[in-house]
Amino acid sequence: MVTQITRGIKISVKTTFEGTYFKNHQMHFAFGYHITIENQSKDSVQLMSRHWEIHDALHFKEVVDGEGVVGKKPVLKPGETYTYSSGCLLCSPHGSMNGYFNMINFTSTKSFKVMVPTFNLSAPFALN
Fold it and tell me: ApaG domain spans which residues (predicted)?
C-alpha cells in the first residue's frame, strides 16, 4: 500500500491483479485499485474531478480526466473517509498509475489538488 498526504487529505492505494484476457486479438492485463481518501484537515472538502496517467511497460501512456470518482463527488467532513474501487487494463503485465484529485475546501471555497502517489501495477506471475 502507498500513501501520501496533501493539505491534510490522506490518499492510500492498494492494488490487485484481476487476470488476463484476449480482446481484439491482443492479451490484456486487468488490475484493480482500491483508494481510501481520509480528511485529516479541519475543513469539509468535496472531490470534484480526477486526473490519471496510466503507464505500461511498453511505454504506452493513457490520460484519463473526469468528474468525480465512480460516478460520485464525495463530501468529507473532518475525520471522515471515503473508499472506492476501480480498475484499468494494460497491454503489459507491469505498469503504474499516478494523478490527482481536484477538491474544493468548503471553508475557504478554494479549489486545490490532492496528489495521488504513483502506484505500481504488476501481475504476480511476471515477477522474478
Answer: 3-128
Size of the chain in residues: 128
What is the pTM (predicted TM-score) of this model? 0.94
Residue 65's nearest CA partner among 31, 30, 33, 101 is 101
Which residues of the chain form beta strands (DSSP E)? Answer: 2-6, 9-23, 26-39, 45-56, 61-67, 75-76, 81-90, 94-105, 111-122
In 3D, which of 122, 100, 94 has the Cα closest to residue 113? Answer: 100
The DSSP code for 73 is -
Q: What is the residue-level pLDDT of the chain in tens, covering all 128 positions?
A: 999 999 999 999 999 999 998 888 899 999 999 999 999 999 999 999 999 999 999 999 999 999 999 999 999 999 999 999 999 999 999 999 999 999 999 999 999 999 999 999 999 987 65
